[in-house]
Amino acid sequence: MRTARMITLIGVLMTQPVMAQPSSWEWKDAHRKCASAIEGNETWPSEPVKACAAMHMCANEAVLSNKQQMLLLSAIRRIPNCQDP
After folding, report:
1. What is the SS3 assignment for 82?
2. What local confidence, expressed as pLDDT, does residue 48 receive?
3. Residues 77, 80: Cα–Cα separation, whole Å
4. For 55-66, b where at least 16 C-beta lie within 10 A, e where not — what string?
5. How far apart (Å, rounded) are the C-alpha atoms in residues 29 and 61?
6. DSSP letters spanning 23-61
7. Which of 9, 19, 28, 59 has a CA 20 to 30 Å removed from the CA of 35?
């Protein structure tokens, strides 16, 4: 009886939609935010060191168009002490 309830509960949980949560720049899927941030629709981290790290992650992990790559490089160069990727 207990096993049947557990299986039912697991089945219900698996069929429920996952609540969408905003992605953080520290999460593994942060590369999904890159294009939006480059286009100005998403904010970069407010601290320059964290913004630089996020931008470098975007340069290395996100699939970007040539225009997005140029915009990203320009943004990187505006951050003090942030080197080109």
Report:
1. coil
2. 96
3. 7
4. bbbbbeebebee
5. 10
6. PPTTSTTGGGGHHHHHTTSSPPPSSHHHHHHHHHHHHHH
7. 19
Residue with tokens 């225009």: 67
**CA–CA distance, 2 with 64 (Å, rounded to integer):** 51
User: CA 12 to CA 53: how far, in whole Å?
Assistant: 40
pTM value > 0.90 = no
- pLDDT tens for 37-62 read 999 999 999 999 999 999 999 999 99
Query: Which residue, chain included where needed, has tokens 């915009």?
Result: 71
Contacts made by residues 36-40, CB under 8 angstroms, sequence distance 24+ = 38/64, 38/68, 38/71, 38/72, 38/75, 39/68, 39/71
